[in-house]
Amino acid sequence: MRQASLVFGLFILMSMLLILPVAADEKTENLMSVVLDDFDTPDQSNWIAVGSKFTTEGFPKIAFPTAWPEALYGANKEGNDYKVLGVWGKFDRQGYNYIELIPDRKNNKDEFIGIPIPGRIKMLDLWVWGSQYDFYMEAHLMDYRGFTHVLNLGSIKHEGWRNLRAFIPSSIPQGRKYVPQHEPLHLTKLVIWTKPWERVDNFYVYIDYLKILSDMFITRFDGEDLANPEVVERIWGSDNSGGGGK
User: Fold this and answer.
1) Is it true that the peptide bond before 69 is cis, omega within 30 degrees of 0?
2) Which of 37, 110, 190, 222 is most buried, taking the most CB atoms under 10 A from its CB?
3) Taking the model in full, what pTM does it have?
C-alpha cells in the first residue's frame, strides 16, 4: 500500500515538473515602451483628417507645428525641432460630430492597414492639448479577423497638455491557437467627438507622442521560420489565406 502511494506521488511530481515550464513560459513578459508616432517628421507621418456630416466646407485641416508638452520634453533649451499633429475643426451645427484622424498606411497589396502594433499591446497613450471644449477621444484597433475595437481615451475638456491612456482589455484577441499564434493589432484611427451642447464653430486640438506599452516576449520553437509570413509568401505566393481559424 505504501509502495503504491509512493509510485502515485512520484507520478504527480513528474506531471507537475512537465507542466511547470509551460506555465512559467506563458507568464513570461518582456514589457517595452514603443513610440508609434512622435510627429517630429511630418513627411513620414502620413495622417489624414476626415470630418462627419456637418463639417464646415474645407475642414478639418491638419498641420505639424513646432510645439511640445513641457511635462514630456521639459523647456527644450537645446532647441530641438519637436513637432505635434495639429487639428483645426469647424462644424455647421452642434451635435455628436466627429473628426477621424487616420494613419494612411498600406501594405504591399495597397490595402489600408493602419499602424501595425508590435508585440501584445497592454496600454496605449498619447499627449493631447485641449482648450476646455467638452470633447472626448477614442482609439480604434483592428484585430486579425478585421473586427474593430474602440478604446475610450477620455475627455479632453482641459487646458493645455495632458496625458491620456487606455488599457487593452483581454477580450480583444491578439492571437489564436494555430501557428503563427501571435496576431498583431493595428491602430486604424483616432477619433475626436464633440458633445451636443458644446460650441463647434471653431476649435483646435494638438496631439503628440503616441506610444504603447507592449509585451515583446516571443516563445521560440523548432521550425518557427516556416511560420514567418514572409517565408510563407516566398514558398506559396501571396494568394494564400494563412490557414485561418481562431
Assistant:
1) no
2) 190
3) 0.79
Could you report the per-residue pLDDT of 90-140, keeping only the tens digit for each? 999 999 999 999 998 777 777 778 999 999 999 999 999 999 999 999 999
Asked if residue 102 lies in contact with residue 83, where contact means CB atoms within 8 angstroms, the answer is no
- In whole angstroms, give the CA distance from residue 19 to residue 236: 36
User: How do residues 42-51 score in pLDDT, each as one tens digit?
Assistant: 988 889 999 9
Count how many Cα atoms sit within 13 Å of the Cα of residue 122 in the half-sphere of its side chain. Answer: 11
Residue located via cell numbers 507592449: 214
Residue at grid coordinates 499564434? 181
* Helix (H) / strand (E) containing 87: strand 85-89
How many residues does the structure list for the chain? Answer: 246
Q: Cell numbers of 146, please? A: 478585421
The counts of H helices and E strands in the chain are 4, 12
The pair phi, psi for residue 130, each rounded to 5°, is -120, 165
Q: Which helix (H) or strand (E) holds 27?
A: helix 2-27
